[in-house]
Amino acid sequence: MTSDTPGGARSRGLLSRLRRARSSPRSKARRRLGAAVRLLAALTLAGGAYTVFAPGLQAQDTPQLTTAAQEGKALFDTSCVTCHGRNAQGIEGRGPSLIGVGSASVEFQVGTGRMPLPRQEAQAERKPPVFNDDEIRQLAQYVQELGGGPQLPEGENLHQGADVAEGGRLFRLNCSSCHSFGGGGGALSSGKFAPNLRPANDRQIYAAMLTGPQNMPVFGDNQLRPDQKADIIAYVQETLAKDRDPGGLNLGRLGPSTEGVAIFLVGIVALVFASLWIAGKS
Ligand code: HEC
Ligand code: HEC
């Protein structure tokens, strides 16, 4: 019993210490939990206030598009994403980025039926367009609003009042090396070719010069001023496309080699007959 009392006191002391020890971590945990809840509430409040007071911040991810561009995006998302990517940023090995190519390039590529490309080939070819004029304008607007770039002037006729003769001079200087003197086109290296210019309308000729598709060089406004572009369009449309041949017989418009062959054949035949005639006389 003697050892009971102090033992009892010690055990009671121990008990109360234990209780204190047990209760203190519990209250600490409760305090920590309270702090966490309060922090969460504060964060939620701050986040809520942020979204309420800063609604424009979303615009950085998805730029605000005009109605036409939104319609264009819808068309793009069904017909072009597979090769050009979600936001036209391009897909390695499938299609290039369209950021900065401008509405002129889209109008040219889609308007001449080159895009949407049915399959990978050496060169996209001219085909009947898949989209109508309104849809083409919407697609072009979408790409324009995504990344800017060259744009065409307004209107269908881009060569009103232009100088056809000057256009002919500029054409022979800048275009005939690939498209031939008559604009009939010609072969380039590696299965590529410069196409016949007759099917192209004013806007497409302008766009080709402005954007330089594939192997064609870009003729920016400092290489060919807008009025010089108009002169070239006038020459292509008024002289070449209307099949006017100011020089007489066109010989299939194949250029100087055909002319050489023609004069050679005609000349040889004439000489043979002349010598036969002379021989017959003597
Ligand atoms: C099968 C894949 C494919 C599809 C589908 C496709 N493209 Fe392309 N696109 C290409 C490739 C490859 C090129 C580059 C080679 C070329 O110009 O022929 C290109 C080039 C272009 C260019 C020229 C870019 C420049 O540098 O000027 C434009 C504009 C374009 N595509 C628009 C479109 C639009 C708009 C659509 C949807 C209507 C579309 N493409 C659908 C593969 C594709
Ligand atoms: C280095 C060769 C080269 C020169 C120079 C050149 N082009 Fe081209 N051009 C091409 C090629 C290649 C294409 C086909 C591009 C394609 O299919 O994507 C083309 C396409 C075009 C088209 C599109 C025709 C169609 O199918 O509707 C037009 C229009 C055109 N060129 C006009 C011109 C004019 C105008 C000039 C002179 C200012 C010129 N080109 C100079 C190579 C050339």
Any overview of this molecule?
Its EC number is 7.1.1.8. Keywords: Cell membrane, Electron transport, Heme, Iron, Membrane, Metal-binding, Repeat, Respiratory chain, Translocase, Transmembrane, Transmembrane helix, Transport. It is found in: Cell membrane. This is Cytochrome bc1 complex cytochrome c subunit. It catalyses: a quinol + 2 Fe(III)-[cytochrome c](out) = a quinone + 2 Fe(II)-[cytochrome c](out) + 2 H(+)(out). This protein has about 280 residues and is mainly α. Among the domains are: about 80 residues, Cytochrome Bc1 Complex, Chain D, domain 2, CATH 1.10.760; about 90 residues, Cytochrome Bc1 Complex, Chain D, domain 2, CATH 1.10.760.10. It is built from 10 helices and 2 strands, in the order αααααααββααα. Strands 1-2 form a two-stranded antiparallel sheet. β1 and β2 form a beta hairpin. It is elongated, with a radius of gyration of 39 Å. The N terminus is likely disordered. Bound molecules: heme C (2 copies). The site of one heme C has 22 residues, from α3 and α4.
From the structure above, extract its key features.
elongated, 1% strand, Cytochrome Bc1 Complex, Chain D, domain 2, 10 helices, mainly alpha, two-stranded antiparallel ribbon, binds heme C
| Overall helicity | 55-70%
Write out the distinct hetero groups bound to the structure: heme C
CATH architecture of the domain at 164-250: Orthogonal Bundle
Strand content: under 5%
If you average the pLDDT, what whole number results?
Answer: 85
- Broad CATH class of the domain at 164-250: Mainly Alpha
* Element pattern in H and E: HHHHHHHEEHHH
Q: Provide the structure class.
A: mainly alpha
Largest sheet: 2 strands, antiparallel
Provide the gyration radius in Å. 39 Å
What is CATH's topology name of the domain at 164-250? Cytochrome Bc1 Complex, Chain D, domain 2
> What's the end-to-end separation, in Å?
169 Å
Number of separate strands: 2
